[in-house]
Write the structure tokens for this entry.
Amino acid sequence: QGNLVESGGGSAQAGGSLTLSCTAATGTYWGKCMAWFRQTPGKEREGVAAIDGSGSTTYAESVQGRFIISKDNAKKTLNLKMSNLKPDDTANYFCASRGDFWCSLGLQLDSSEYKYWGQGTQVTVSS
């Protein structure tokens, strides 16, 4: 088990839904700024959605209106509800945490800002 453990990946039809979850092993890895990223082979890791300690959210334009990020501090769980899925959403999805640091304004979806990472969960969307 890693510091952050994702679950909920799988296969879906275009237009369908999936919900990803990420659980922090301890409070060390649960942060004031947490996010979901995704990556496909040969491409850079892409920021999908982020949420800070106050609940403020940031979304990539490509998922705005379709994905919802949320968190449960008591359970140390980060969620990503994905709706109206498209084949372009196919990727390995990672959760990430900045630990004790708040999100930096404008850098919420910058992977270099994040210290802790999960191992990823694969999402495959077929047309």
The radius of gyration is 13 Å. The mean pLDDT is 94.
